[in-house]
């Protein structure tokens, strides 16, 4: 029976898979078998992302009357569809054997509390890695807001992100001041009104390979630490987020006390409660870009993600103090990454004798359901366009 199931896939596999991957003639492990089945259809499955994105944007448009009558239900449904699409991206890496091991604080228990997430930025694969490792963190994926480069606005994912309320930021000195004003207005209008919990940003403001030399020259000129695995962060967006979402301030820090967003008419919220410091490490310091994530060029790889949480009361808001605080966080990231690249492990948290990694996994049945939805949405759009073509011509 096993050979009856796998033989047709083996013939197809010889044409589309890279050397070194083989189909095992057994189904004793359903996860392995599902992964093998997905791999043979991976190119087609990944092609469904535009269809799934169109499906979400179209569904959101069709549900627009609901947004007027019951905005909470509308944004709940939109968040569910948004999570489905991010699960599609996660499935690409899972299919290719790209997995995540987590270290440090366990952030799952805080998924319902508001937090700002700061991440080191090495490549486009960082976003895909985050999409995967946050899939099992409760409602985080559907209730998070991303800050991303404006070029993503012009991708098939851009329309979905616009509907979701993500913020597209333009880089460069010519745009910096205006972008911070736009960011503040965006947060005031959309963050609490759409029940967002986590906001994700990359304070370095660009990829490591592009900013490292400039950052090191700036550090040398200003007697700052010399960093190799990260770059010195920029504080503008971080300060705007803390001041806008952090509630009242006490002694130069965010108090985390109850606040109210009067402009949107939203009920009282506690504001930001945590800053989650996320450090992504790739084996042998070789970042994975989104092209590798999509097409699976690289052999199966484990990406390591380290979390450290800081209560919002410990985070200063004033520019000079916040700059020093952020610089210290990235010096710590440098030390974490140096230790990882030397030993293959992250160091234990303070007070613990040794670090305890947590191997993150995805539910193959869930991924199968999402892939099926993607195929169905793609077929729906193909049929609609085909019918329209026949009517016109």
From TrEMBL:
The keyword Ion transport belongs to this UniProt entry's keyword annotation: no
GO terms of biological process kind: phosphatidylinositol acyl-chain remodeling; phospholipid biosynthetic process
TM region positions: none
Keywords: Acyltransferase, Lipid biosynthesis, Lipid metabolism, Phospholipid biosynthesis, Phospholipid metabolism, Transferase
UniProt keyword RNA-binding, yes or no: no
Residues annotated as domain Phospholipid/glycerol acyltransferase: 115-239
Protein family: Belongs to the 1-acyl-sn-glycerol-3-phosphate acyltransferase family.
Name of the protein described by the UniProt record: Phospholipid/glycerol acyltransferase domain-containing protein
The species this protein was found in: Knipowitschia caucasica
């Amino acid at each position: 029976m096993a050979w009856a199931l796998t033989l047709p896939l083996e013939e197809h596999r010889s044409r589309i898979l890279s050397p070194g991957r083989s189909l095992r003639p057994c189904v004793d492990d359903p996860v392995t078998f599902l992964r093998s089945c997905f791999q043979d259809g991976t190119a087609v499955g990944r092609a469904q992302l535009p269809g799934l994105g169109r499906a979400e944007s179209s569904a959101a448009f069709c549900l627009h009357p609901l947004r007027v009558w019951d905005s909470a239900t509308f944004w709940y449904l939109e968040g569910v569809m948004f999570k489905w699409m991010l699960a599609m991206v996660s499935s690409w890496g899972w299919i290719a054997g790209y997995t995540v091991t987590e270290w440090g604080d366990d952030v799952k228990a805080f998924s319902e509390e508001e937090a700002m997430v700061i991440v080191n930025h090495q490549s486009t694969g960082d976003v895909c890695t985050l999409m995967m490792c946050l899939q099992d963190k409760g409602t985080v994926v559907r209730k998070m807001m991303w800050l991303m480069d404006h070029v993503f606005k012009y991708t098939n994912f851009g329309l979905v992100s616009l509907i979701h309320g993500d913020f597209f930021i333009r880089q460069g000195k010519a745009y910096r001041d205006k972008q911070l004003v736009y960011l503040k207005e965006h947060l005031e209008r959309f963050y609490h009104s759409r029940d967002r919990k986590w906001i994700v940003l990359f304070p370095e403001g660009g990829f490591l390979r592009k900013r490292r030399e400039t950052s090191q020259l700036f550090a040398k000129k200003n007697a700052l630490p010399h960093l190799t695995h990260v770059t010195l962060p920029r504080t503008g967006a971080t300060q705007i987020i803390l001041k806008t979402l952090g509630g009242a301030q006490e002694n130069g820090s965010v108090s985390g006390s109850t606040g109210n967003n009067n402009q949107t008419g939203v009920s009282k919220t506690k504001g930001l409660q945590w800053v989650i410091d996320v450090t992504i490490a790739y084996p042998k310091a070789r970042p994975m870009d989104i092209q590798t994530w999509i097409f699976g060029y690289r052999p199966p790889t484990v990406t390591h993600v380290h979390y450290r949480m800081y209560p919002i009361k410990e985070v200063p808001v004033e520019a000079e103090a916040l700059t020093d605080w952020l610089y210290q966080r990235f010096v710590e990231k440098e030390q974490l990454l140096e230790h990882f690249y030397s030993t293959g492990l992250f160091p234990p948290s303070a007070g613990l004798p040794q670090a305890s990694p947590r191997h993150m996994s995805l539910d193959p049945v869930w991924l199968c359901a999402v892939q099926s939805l993607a195929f169905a949405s793609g077929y729906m759009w193909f049929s609609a366009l085909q019918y329209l073509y026949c009517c016109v011509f």
